[in-house]
Amino acid sequence: MFSNREVTLSAIAKDPRKTPSDALVVGVAVGPDGPVLLESPLSPRSAEAIASTLRSLGVTGAADQLHRLPGLPELGTDVIALAGVGKIDDGAAPSAEQLRRAAGSAVRQLAGSDTVVLALPAPTAEELGAVAEGAALGAYAYTEHKTATQDGPKSNVRRAVVYSPAAGTTAADDALARAAVVGSAVNVTRTLVNMPPSQLYPETFAEAARELAKGLPVKVTVWDEKRLAKEGFGGILAVGQGSARPPRLVKVEYAPAKSARRVHFVGKGITFDTGGISIKPSAQMDQMKSDMAGAATVLTALLAAARLGLGVSVTAWLCMAENMPSGTAQRPADVITVRGGKTVEVLNTDAEGRLVMADGLSAASDEEPDVLVDVATLTGAALIALGTRTAGVMGDDAVTRPLLDAAAAAGEPAWPMPLPEELRAGLDSPTADIANIGDRPGGMLTAAIFLHEFVGARADGSAVPWAHVDIAGPAFNTGSAYGHTPKQGTGATVRTLVAYLEALAGEADA
Ligand code: BES
Ligand code: MN
Ligand code: ZN
């Protein structure tokens, strides 16, 4: 099922000639006075020769620029690839994020090559980790359904070797191992999103979760439609009832012996969103294969936590259904009872994400976690508000603040959004406890306010600390590839969640 070939990451401290490669990547930055060739294993003479011709070569150092030159006799490489890292201050070194993106962009553009040596300036384990992570993210191609043709799809780079004086140290080994785990988590998310909905539907998505968890200290429980009915998961059932492919709820648990905190994740897993009876226009409906990105994200982030052996216990609830119009589909005006007993008037069957999430949030709340974070491609309004690359983060400050910090550390754009009280009135229903749509302005916020209604309280009466991340924009790239981000499934927010869990585990250690 997951046939994208994983890149092998390694690091060397000296003499890249011992590693014959297809390409040696060297950095170029945009300096205050033009392009600057960054530190590399090139001999001073060669470096000088290249540096003095950058302008005539048309090399500016801008991000995503990649210029190929023939390899030099002094190096064991076929090609020298000059990779842009973007703007730096006079004499300054590129940031970890610039290195991550430059490495990712170069490795992505070098698809079709076998071995790439990355000689970007990486003096310490931190930069080495950033370059390795970028390389892992750039080494992705979804070629599953491309038949072999002469100039057919280029497969991803197989081996990425990071050149760094820090190579060989324990810190460097840890950074490499982490980059491999994180890169693979993101790439698996991308593949789950990219898979056609004829192949990835609730039943097969649940199987994939089981398969991916194999060999890890992780427990997977699957609710089929019968058990969902018996236990009152009315939201997941209502959304799934129009499809010939029945819905599923998957609970994934990682509970290490040493754990100070209990985190629960809930992910939206709509394997295809037609809108249901409130059907979407056909133009771009294909993009709705990405409507399960939230579930894929929380799944792979949890599995990464298990692989890294983080000292924090994590439970992920994946709410899976296919939203289809049919004779058995729910109708606008139907009233459903979601888990926990609240009734919802379904005024628009295309606002289905919040219905399945209501069930998941209620089930998670019952276990009284220390924090509850949900991730969903919830609203088109998120794209209007924040564009295509930035996630919207809403909820309790105690959860949103560390999440936003984690996003910044991971280099993933995310922004805080409010939950204005007055929008709640728009969700009033004359018939049921709440309606599933409100007024049009602030659609992302209204959706979050709806979700908040299903976040429960603990036995002592305190609310479960909660945050909601709307990834409708960043989860799926409908434009061109850039940096380490490919077209289509991006795996956005996986790295934020991993960084968030690492921070929680670190706090517990301190
Ligand atoms: N899955 C969509 C949201 C979406 C739109 C994600 C575009 C990614 C790109 C969601 O189920 C949806 O259809 N939301 C509706 C809600 C509306 C009916 C209140 C929307 O945003 O239009
Ligand atoms: Mn929808
Ligand atoms: Zn949806």
Q: What's the gist of this structure?
A:
The protein is built from 13 helices and 20 strands. The chain has 510 residues and is of the alpha/beta class. It has two domains: 183 residues, Leucine Aminopeptidase, subunit E, domain 1, CATH 3.40.220; 256 residues, Zn peptidases (Aminopeptidase).
Number of domains: 2
Given helix and strand content, the structural type is: alpha/beta
Number of discrete helical segments: 13
* Order of strands in the sheet with most strands: 8-9-11-10-14-18-15-16
Give me the CATH fold name of the largest domain.
Aminopeptidase
What is the CATH superfamily label of the largest domain? Zn peptidases
Average residue pLDDT: 97
The residue fraction in helices comes out at 25-40%
Number of strands: 20
Multimerization status: single chain
Strand content: 15-25%
Distance between the termini: 40 Å
Largest sheet: 8 strands, mixed
Which CATH-level-2 architecture of the largest domain?
Answer: 3-Layer(aba) Sandwich
CATH class of the largest domain: Alpha Beta
* Rg over CA atoms: 24 Å
What form results from the Cα inertia axes?
elongated
Hetero compounds? ligand BES, manganese (II) ion, zinc ion
